[in-house]
Amino acid sequence: MRLEVDAPATAARASIGDSVSVAGCCLTAVAVSGGRLSFELVPETVARTSLARLERGDRVNVEPSLRAGEPLGGHLVQGHVDGVGTVRASGAEGDGRRVAIDAPPDLLRYVVEKGSIAVDGTSLTVAAVDEAGFTVALVPHTLAATTLGALSPGDPVNLEVDVLAKYVERSLRG
User: Fold this and answer.
1) Secondary structure (3-state) at 147
2) Quick one: which H or E segment has residue 2?
3) What is the number of alpha carbons within 13 Å of residue 64 lying toward its C-beta?
């Protein structure tokens, strides 16, 4: 499957072979031309993400990889999607927005209040956790700079849990 994304700012700095996050998925650019990035999606990517549901004209979050020597301005996000969640609710909260997301149980075990999670590639702090999922509080900047403000109940979202939690679990298992 081939995915093409119009992203002039990112494409201007990208080369073939670069990793680029598209809706939270780390993809390899196979073509860069005229402000457009092209990627090839293998069955593993299609099975683990929501990318196959995209339609022409859909907006996605696009971000180049962090380069060595650049400051880390948030949580560690690899672009290695762990699974797909579903928006349960979304509503205004002051100038921001509160979004509740149902998550598969095998991912939810890594989600903790005030921990980090990536939703469609956007690094966020978990505001609350319940038996079915978690809630995030989106600030006005996040609403303006990402696609998260347009989320509605039923929308699928790519989730990446905290990689450190997965390593800790594995280490404790021996």
Assistant:
1) coil
2) strand 2-6
3) 17
* Closest by Cα among 22, 60, 56 to 41: 22
Distance CA 160, CA 115 (A): 12
Mean pLDDT of the chain: 94
Q: Helix, strand, or coil here: 89?
A: strand
Q: 108 near 150, Cβ under 8 Å? A: no
pTM of the model: 0.89
Question: If you write DSSP's letter for every residue of 100-124 in order, what string do you get?
Answer: EEE--HHHHTT--TT-EEEETTEEE
Q: Is 131 or 174 the better-scoring residue by pLDDT? A: 131
3-state secondary structure of 158: strand
Give me the count of residues in the chain: 174
Rounded to whole angstroms, how far apart are CA atoms 171 and 14? 36
Please state the three-class secondary structure of 122-156 as a single string. Answer: EEEEEEEECCCEEEEEECHHHHHHCCHHHCCCCCE
Rounded to whole angstroms, the Cα distance separating 123 from 139 reads 12
Torsion 122-125-127-129 (CA) sign: positive
Cβ-proximal residues to 94 (8 Å cutoff; 6+ apart), any chain = none
